[in-house]
Amino acid sequence: MPTQNTQYLSEVFRPNDAEWAGRAVRRGEIRRIARGLYTRNLDEDLDRLVRRLWYDVAALYFPGAVIVDRSAIDAAPAEDGSLFLDVGARPRNPRRVVLPGLVLAPRNGPGRVEGDMPFVELFVAGQARALLDNMRPSRARSGVARTLRREEMEAHLDRIARRRGDQALGELRDDARAIAPALGAEAQLVELDALIGTLLGTRETELSTPLARARREGSPYDPDRLELFEVLRAELASTPFAERPAPADPQRLFAFFEAYFSNWIEGTEFEVDEAEEIVFDGRIPEQRPADAHDVLGTFRAITSPDLGARPPTTPEELESFLISANHEVLEARPEKKPGQFKEKANRAGQTLFVLPALVRGTLREGFRLCGTLPPGLPRAIYAMFLAAEVHPFTDGNGRVARILLNAELSAKGLCRVMIPMSYRDEYMQALRALSHNRNARPLSRVIDRAQRWASLMTWDDRATVLELMDRTNALAPPEIAHDHNLHLLDPAEILEDEPAHRAPGRRASTPGRSRRPKA
Fold first, then answer.
1. Residues 212 and 301 in one domain
2. Could you give the angle at the alpha carbon of 243 between the alpha carbons of 237 and 247, nearest 5°?
3. pLDDT over 90 at 503, yes or no
4. Average pLDDT of the chain, as a whole number
5. Range 452-476 average pLDDT
6. 352-374 pLDDT, tens per residue?
7. Most buried among 7, 261, 335, 350, using CB within 10 Å?
8. What's the gap between Cα 240 and its chain centre?
């Protein structure tokens, strides 16, 4: 190996000429990682380098080996760097190889079998084989166990079922039957068959985790969402909120704007006077009848005695509440299957919501945490996010979630929440901060501020309401608010600082006579 060829070497390598390697090390051209293992990378930390190139390193020591046991499930080394390999019949009783950042843990076995897949210069156990291998007990006395613990296996099988459906478990069980003799895993097949059968509800064996038991009982849930709900619960439980009494709403103007803004968030946009004619006069525009019925349906749900101030107290009541609210909002859209839980997965941007098969179980498990929070804003915000994050329906989920939010508040005589136009982006960003980054604080702050804004408004007279909305920038659409750097202002500051500057933006309607809802 001439000196000038080091640039063409692999990043990690085992040289044929040990003397050449020693001279190259002394010249500073390569570095020694361990006995017989070198790198031309002169800068990167060795632990990080070896961990990054673990598959190349493993292939240098055990070419053609099969990644098995725990490592086949993770498709990577364990947290302590352990990588478990089946090296076939040779070398006999292979020794562990301890390297910076990586521990190669080889064992003798059958080597590659049907279903194993190529992985760089190694192979990785197929899914059926990985299940059988991990049904074997581990004898590890320290460090990461070679095989999954029972609770880890249950979680892994549940994850497969969540992502690919129950039928995937049955298919893997059939594949395991076909390869068990080649692995000498007949006893493990019996255990696996019993475990999968129990998860599918056709067998009966002891289960270790609530997750697996819920699947057996036909109510599987999304454990990742439950972790997210706990993040929100902890934030809400530790946050002090003001208790703001519900303002008088003699003309149901508050209820109207709550419905109006809730639909605006979802892209159903009308001028204020158009929406008033829809809600108070029953005038449905011929050009947009479905959109008009969305606004009207939301208003009816908000003012319904069964929905407006009667939040659910049990998981069964939660289901009934959500179904009734969704049916009310989307009654005029039969193609959206109002009041029926979704049959297909749905998403918004990068957020994939809870899968259809997990909706009921996730609502049920998530609702258990709701009762641990004090009534008022903490419980209301949690309930809203639970419904929004599960997204149980084809459409109308955001409106239904906000109806649930406000039912919790009205039940305690507290001010309901609405999200004005200019505040929509902050609200949506706060939801995303929690969904994507597990940051719950923005959502609690946004809802708290929106409630404060609504509680300080005067709802007795239409002209006054529109005047205050205009001056607090509530009626500025998000794009105008962004272009003019407008923010939702506090009504108290406007009233205390006369005369106030009138912010630029679109006037939604000209103040006129008060509109009273028809009986």
1. no
2. 145
3. no
4. 92
5. 95
6. 899 999 999 999 999 999 999 99
7. 261
8. 26
pLDDT at 347: 86
Last residue of a domain, one of 183, 198, 220: 220
> C-alpha distances in angstroms, 175 versus 111, 128, 178?
17, 6, 5
One domain, residues 295 and 443:
yes
Spatial distance between the Cα atoms of 405 and 383, rounded to a whole number of angstroms: 6
Please indicate, yes or no, if residue 143 is contained in any of the structural domains: no
**Residue pair 60/12 in contact by the 8 Å Cβ criterion:** yes
The number of distinct structural domains making up the chain is 3
Task: Tell me the three-class secondary structure of 151-199, residue by residue.
Answer: HHHHHHHHHHHHHHCHHHHHHHHHHHHHHHHHHCCHHHHHHHHHHHHHH
* Dist. CA 482–CA 152, nearest whole Å: 48
d(CA 480, CA 96) in angstroms, rounded, equals 65
- What CATH number does the domain containing 323 carry? 1.10.3290.10
User: Tens digit of pLDDT for each residue in 146-179?
Assistant: 999 999 999 999 999 998 989 999 999 999 999 9
Closest by CA to 432, choosing from 424, 443, 422, 419, is 443
Displacement of CA 203 from its chain's centroid (Å): 31
Q: What are phi and psi of 105, to 5 degrees?
A: -120, 85
> Distance between the two ends of the chain, CA-based, in angstroms?
95
Where does the pLDDT of residue 492 fall: very low under 50, low under 70, confident under 90, or very high at 90 and above?
confident
- The phi, psi pair for 13, rounded to 5°, reads -160, 165
Whole-prediction pTM: 0.82
Structure tokens belonging to residue 492? 């108290």
Q: Which tokens is 358 given?
A: 């997990």
Q: Which two tokens stand for residue 219?
A: 């109510």
> Which range of residues forms the domain containing residue 414?
224-496
- Structure tokens given for 407: 């039912």
**% of the chain surpassing 70 pLDDT:** 94
Three-class secondary structure of residue 141 per DSSP = coil
- 199 and 302 both lie in a single domain: no
Question: Sign of the CA dihedral 170, 171, 174, 176?
Answer: negative
Which of 22, 412, 459, 53 has the alpha carbon at shortest distance from 245? 412
Residues 464 and 405 in one domain: yes
Please provide the DSSP assignment of 9-70 as one string.
S-SEE--S-HHHHHHHHHTTSSEEEETTEEES--SS-HHHHHHHTHHHHHHHHSTT-EE-HH
